[in-house]
Amino acid sequence: MVNLAPLALSLAVALVATSLASLVGIAVALGLGKLRHPWLRELFDALATAPLVMPPTVLGYALLVALGRRSVVGGLWERVVGSPLVFSRSGAVVAAFVAATPLIVRSSRAALDSVDERLVGVARTLGASETRAIVTIVLPLAWRGIFAGILLGFARALGDFGITLMVAGDLPGETQTASLAIYDALMSGHEHEASVLAAALGGLAVVILVLAGRLGRAS
Amino acid sequence: MLALSAVAAAAGTATLAGCKTKVAPLRVAAASDLFRVLPVLLEAMPRPDAAPAPQITFGSTGKLALQIRNGAPFDVFLAAHERYLDELATRGLLVAGTRQAFGLGRLSLVVPGPCREEGALPRRLDALRGERFRRIAIAHPDHAPYGLAAKQAMEKAGVFDDLASRLVFADSVQHALSFVRTGNADVGFVARSLLEPEEACAAPVDPSLHEPIVQAGAVLQTARDPRRAAEVVKLLVGEGGRRALARGGFALPEASSKP
To answer: What is the pTM of this model?
Structure first.
């Protein structure tokens, strides 16, 4: 019997991580749009995309050092929460968050850029505040593109392997996500278990993406 | 389009023709516990004129075996556990008569440095029960030989059940070592051969607590030149190889033993 718990864990981790990544990603994309200096804007845009280019294990190692128990952030976390950030479910969420965010930033920026600035101008002349213009005009018009980015980010978060392996370790029942369980099964020669889990992960991703895609179009 | 492919084809032929005059390098798949020893040893290996230095691909033994089973083009496989060679042999992927055991892996406990404080370095496995060892890094016991040995040792010492919830599984011993080196695991089970020769913060694990980690190598059926490939295994069991392996943190099997 194949243990499906890693699948449930992957799903939970990806959902939490994608929610956080959406908030941060959209905020970053909005902020980038506000930068008037074209070179500076491209530079920050490139920096926000850079994690996509980095090999995941390298990125994971960097995070392990930056958020590890000897780091400022990791030490602070341990003092507040009482247990280390690395090798925990929170660590797995951080890994998936880092994997998903660049995709959400990229897509959101393209979607936000495509909104006709004259509409925002009209709203402003009619007395709408900056925030109100964003909430009532910009975000609704850009929503489809942003949503596509969120789905991409979710898919990436669901399947992450390299970053999670480094930051969250491989604790069975604790941080062993589906991707790690598939890899372990494959390496141990349990090819049947690996294929069942891989098919389940793939199937789950397809179902969620189709459903979310339909919902996104309807809204 | 047609013109482009014609150019590409011409370029392809040119490179192929260029290659013919050169001797291809040996392609060695090696367990990651040989990371420090093997490159130096192979660099000094006598080779025919114009032959480039052997290319070494390091990885966990389980991963390399999986790749070889699926047709990875290596000439020689040096495994951290002979069990993986058994499996390849039953599939007919090894050249008969080329297989030899060349070393015994030594398991070490390592803690993040500096470790001058009393009790910082566990000398016995039951010391691992101590409060200070909250996270224990080991290579995955299901597919990494040193991980399996670590698990066996903890079981035999009667501490495995107490420590199970503190274990962090790494992909390989090298990965487990990086968990310790970055200070994120409080202690780790690693290969002695991956540590500095004078490593202060490491203690050997009693080898009688686990099955021997028999390092063995063999020439693969995919070898382009099996005779030259066999030289690599001969080098490891030869006098120079044994000296280098002993210096590099391996124990040695009886001379000229065949598994």
So the answer is: 0.80
